[in-house]
Please model this.
Amino acid sequence: MKILITGGTTFVSKFAAEYFVLRGHDVTVLNRGSREQVKGVELICCDRMQPGDALKGRFFDAVLDITAYTQEHICALLDSGVAFDDYVFISSSAVYPETNPQPFTEEQECGHNSVWGDYGMNKLRAERYLSSRVPGAYILRPPYFYGKYENLYREAFPFDCAMQDMPFYIPGSGEMKLQFFNVHDLCRFIEILLSRHPQNHVFNVGSNEIVTVREWVGMCYKAAGKEAHFISVDETIPQRNYFCFYNYEYVLDVSRQNELMPDTTGLMQGLQEEYDWYKNNTDSVYYRKPYVEFIDNNIKKNTGL
Model:
C-alpha cells in the first residue's frame, strides 16, 4: 500500500512509520523536517496547516492521521488536494465525559471531560468534522499509549527511579486503575482495519489488562531488574506534582476491538521492550518533569517521608 502518515518523527507516528516500512509498504511522512526521519520513508516537508501544493494530486491507499488535535488540522489536510481510499484518525478516550458510566463504550454520548479540558473537546470536534466530510473514516479512541519511542516522561519516570535505586512515592494506596495500549498493537489493529474494512467506524482501542498504579510501577521496576519499595503520599498533596498521571481512573470497553484482534501485548512484555530501548535512549524523552525535585523539596522536607 501507499500510506501517508502525519508526523513520523516522534513516538506513535515514528513507530507507525517504521512499522509499515518494515512490512514493505510505500510510506510517506508529512512533517516539518526538524528531526531525523525513519529510514525508508519519503518526506513531504511542510507544516500540515500550510501544505501549499505539496499534497495536491497525490494519491494514497491510506492516510494515518496521528498528529491531528483540532478540527482545523483535519480541515487543512482534507483541503490540501490529497486523494485517498482510507482515512484512520487517532483520536482519544478524552472525548468521554468522566461522569459517564464505566467502562466507556463507543455508543455513549461524548462531550466535555473536566480532567482533559480543551484537549478532549478539540479531539471530539475533529472527529465530528472528519466524519461529516469522510463518512467512511475510521476513528480510534485509545487510553494511554506506551512502547518504543515514548517521548513523554511517563514510563521513563519509574524507570529512572528504579535505575537510581530510589523508593517510589505513590499516590495514597496506589489502587487507582490504569489502562494502556502498546503502539505495536495500534499498528496491528490499523492493518486489520485496512484489510477487512469492518462496518463499525469508531473503535475504543486498548489492552484488556487493567492494572493499578502500584502494579504498573512494580512492573516498571521489574523491567529494570529492580524491586519497587513504596512510600505512600497523602492525597492532600496534588498528585500531578510528583506523579506522571492525573488523579483520574477510567476504563474503556474494547469489545469491538477484540472481535477483530483478541490478542494484545502483555503489559509486562511491553514494558520490558520499552525499558530495553529506553536505557540506551534516555535523551529521547523531551518533556521531563521535575517530579524528583518536587519530592525532595516538598514531600521529604515538609512531611519527613
User: Anything to note?
Assistant: The two ends are 56 Å apart (CA to CA).
